[in-house]
Hints:
- This protein is mostly helical.
- The protein has one domain (4-336).
- It contains 17 helices and 2 strands.
- The protein has helices at residues 27-30, 33-55, 62-65, 71-88, 103-121, 125-143, 145-149, 152-164, 171-174, 183-210, 213-222, 228-231, 238-258, 262-275, 277-302, 308-311, 332-336; strands spanning 4-6, 9-11.
- A two-stranded antiparallel ribbon has the order 1-2.
- Strand 1 (4-6) and strand 2 form a beta hairpin.
Amino acid sequence: MAVTWEAGSISFAHETWFDHGVYPTDWGFTAEPLTLAFLAAALLLTLAVRLVARIFPGLDVPALGRLAPFMPFAIRLHLAVSTLGLLSLGFYLSPAMDLKANLTGVLLGAVMAVVAITMATGWRARWGAALLIVAGPLGIVEFGIWPVLQRIDLLGLAVYVLATGPGRWSADLEAGRAVEPALDDHARAIWALRLAAGVSLIVVAFGEKLATPALAVHFLSDHPELNLAQQLGMDMSGLEYARLAGGIEVLFGLLLISGALPQACTVLVGIPFNATLWFFGANELMGHLPTYGAMLALLVYGSDPQLRPTVSLLLPPSPRRRTDLARRRRDREAWAARRPSG
């Protein structure tokens, strides 16, 4: 992802979605002292945020917190629009994976279509989520491991739907095949969601900058306006700028994995991701919709006093760790009866 400055906004975009060239891997660049210093700084800043969160975990925003029961629907919708949009553009799981006009391409496209239908309607939604998980290994066979690994955020959304079920406004719920998720279900779901979203950012940081600096330098040479430092009059080469941008991406990934101060971190990460739409259009929108859905869920959960503690759990919740979720745990019936006021 490249950091961009234009009209006062910082932006992020996947280089590999727009540059399909082959570039060498250079782990020597990763191991350089300055690169390691940036990575260490990212880790220390993440630890500092967790310490701050112990004193001030966030703000209660009832207008947002009341939306929590609708997050399974929101996640399904983001997945449905993303998979259908990518398929209509001729892509598989991301714009880096072009579907070929052959039998394999048709079968992979069918997988995308089925996932989109199940997510949009909430009909057999957990089956659709399981199919989306299977879509990863299927994609590895056709496109290799690296492009699929960069879409590990989709795995988080799929596990989210498996954990919560389809939620409200779904065919499964209306037919009695599913029930409203309990607090523990939401806790397991948001843990998987934030972990996958954060790991995805870190993988992209290494795959497009810190381990393949030639790709980042070539991308910046084609788009010199993306070098924020040079736009501000600083004498920073494309290579050094790629190092800095990669370090920032790792920081953002670690913040999402940490889950501390979810409201502030979501705004910090979300603004650059949304700003890229101005520069890269439909491909960027369809590819990033799952990330937008994940950040929406983090923002909503972080605004609810009961759900906020679940967002920053380091380990997935289990019956032995239920006291880590919240001091006053609502039972399934109370959660299912929850309705937004007005």
